[in-house]
Amino acid sequence: MGCLSVMHYFLNEQQRMIKGLARRIAEERIMPVRAELDEREEFPWDVMKELAEADLFRIFIPEAYGGLGGGCLDLCVAVEELSRGCCGIAVSYAASSLGSIALIEYGTEEQRQKYLPDIASGAKLAAFALTESMAGSDAAAIRTTAVRDGENYILNGTKQFITNGGEAELYTIIALTDPAKGARGASAILVEKGTPGFTFGKKERKMGIRASTTRELVFHNCRVPRQNLLGREGSGFIITLKTLDRSRPGVGAQAVGLAQGALEAAVAYARERHQFGQPISSFQAIQHMLADMATQVEAARALVYAVARAIDTGVKDYTEAAAMAKLFASDMAMRVTTDAVQIFGGVGYMRDYPVEKMMRDAKITQIYEGTNQVLRNTIALELLKRKAKPE
Questions:
Q1: In whole angstroms, how far apart are CA 78 and each of 14, 26, 27, 265, 275?
Q2: Residue 192: φ, ψ to 5°
Q3: CA-CA distance, 89 to 72, in Å (whole number)?
Q4: Pairwise CA distance, residues 88 & 209, whole Å
Q5: 9, 188, 218, 358: which has the fewest C-beta neighbours closer than 10 Å?
Q6: Of 122, 221, 217, whose CA–CA distance to 172 is shortest?
Q7: Residue-level pLDDT at 1
Q8: Does the active-site annotation cover 369?
């Protein structure tokens, strides 16, 4: 089914190519298997290989390391189309970008040359590990430590709810190199899968995005070379904030694509479902629901694209805008998928139809990479500290 969007967003040639390619993969490879992968909670390795063969992992990697050098908008376009097919599969793809941001922005040339080509080719996935059992929204409360021992760091602690945990080959770990300094003592360190002392805990059983793997990362006297440090010691919290700022428009794109898929399914069903001798699409109550859904999707897409474009133009401070994009789009996705289930009625509550899964998937977009309540705090703080400028 074609996209119901009526807007023209003036994508460039590369972005249009990415959009068409991601859409084709979503329709031909993802939609036929999404229900099965969700039911079995199985990581979509076959689809990941397809994305790699289509060079979609190259989008977010600089050209010098085998990538396409695409910007935030390029990635958002791909994530949106993949999420239209399955948000669980899309986040497995997007998490590799999240795990690469700190390496791209703060890594040494040697680190980039060593790791980025394999991420660009899709041969290896990446992941970002911040969250712990006592450090969710309060990211500064992390307890995982990385103690210097000569030319090594020794890591101890447990990370929780890590997307691509166990599947990724490279992890950006936020750990305390100087616990006495609290958040100012956090650092970012690269850890490879298979490093002695680095193991994986339980695979989480989730409400939604069940094709995505979420696991604990366990470090027990895990020895990592000092040259795996990203940036300088003590810059881990700054790296974390910058990483999340950069990735939040991508979560907004997940939400937009997911809601677009739900809208398209609801429109198709409303046309074919008959009650009282006529299609339910002829009832004004349904028409108004569809109109509101379409308007909300388009408004969220416009915001996400605008923020992504601003980032690509080199705007330095986009914390507030990135938070707005994620907040608005994820709240929208929850409303739109809920309305899609309502339009489907009783069958919408059944796993035989896709909107039930879409509604479950939508919920996480309001939670991960900053809960929407915390993001409202972020937006308000940025708003209140900004001084009004004369016209």
A1: 11, 10, 13, 20, 38
A2: -90, 145
A3: 19
A4: 4
A5: 9
A6: 217
A7: 47
A8: yes
- What are the sequence ranges of the domains in the chain? 13-125, 127-234, 237-385
User: What residues have CB less than 8 Å from 2, skipping those under 6 apart?
Assistant: none
Predicted confidence (pLDDT) at residue 25 exceeds the cutoff of 70: yes
Q: Which CATH architecture has domain 237-385?
A: Up-down Bundle (1.20)
Question: What number does CATH give the domain 127-234?
Answer: 2.40.110.10
pLDDT at position 391, please? 54
Rounded to the nearest integer, the mean pLDDT of the chain is 96
Q: What is the identity of the amino acid at 30? A: I
Within 59-144, residue ranges assigned H as helices are: 72-85, 87-106, 109-121
3-state SS, 304-348, equals HHHHHHHHHCCCCCCHHHHHHHHHHHHHHHHHHHHHHHHHHHHHH
Mean pLDDT of 116-130: 98
In this prediction, residues 325-335 reach a mean pLDDT of: 98
The residue assigned the tokens 């939609």 is 31
CB atoms within 10 A of CB 263: 27
State the architecture of 13-125 in CATH terms.
Answer: Orthogonal Bundle (1.10)
Per annotation, catalytic residue among 27, 80, 369, 391: 369
Give the pair of three-digit tokens for residue 102: 């700190």
Q: Please compute the mean of the pLDDT values over residues 298-302 and round it to a whole number.
A: 98
Structure tokens belonging to residue 38: 């969700």
Rounded to 5°, the CA angle 321-108-145 comes to 75
User: Is 284 a residue whose pLDDT tops 70?
Assistant: yes
The half-sphere exposure of 152 on its side-chain side, counting CA atoms within 13 A, is: 9
What residues have CB less than 8 Å from 105, skipping those under 6 apart?
239, 242, 243, 246
pLDDT above 70 for 388: no
The backbone torsions φ and ψ at residue 316, rounded to the nearest 5 degrees and listed phi first, read -80, -40
